Amino acid sequence: MNWEPLLDALFDAGHQVNCSGDLLTGTAEVQGRTVAVVGTTNHAAIGIELALAQAGAVLSVVRGHPGRPIVLLVDTQGQRLRHRDELLGINRYMAHLGCCIELARRQHHAVIGLVYDQALSGGFITSGLIADACYALPEAEIRVMRLPAMARVTKIDEERLTELSKSNPVFAPGVENFVAMGGIRALWRGDLQAQLRIALENSPIVDQRSLDGAARGGRKLAAMVVERVVEA
Amino acid sequence: MNRSFAESTARERVAHLLDAKSFIEILGPGERVVSPHLALLGVPSSFDDGVVIGHGTLNGQLVFIAAQEGEFMGGGVGEVHGAKLVGLFKRALRDKPAAVIVLAESGGVRLHEANAGLIAVSEVMRALLDARAQGIPVIMLIGGANGCFGGMGLIARCADHVVMSDLGRLAMSGPEVIESSHGVEEYDSRDRALVWRTTGGKHRYLIGDCDQLVEDDVDAFRHAAIGLLGQSMSLSLLALEAEHDLLSDRLTRFGECRDALDVWRLLGVPDPSIVADLEASEMFVLKSLASGESV
Question: What CATH number is attached to the domain comprising A89?
Answer without folding.
Answer: 3.90.226.10
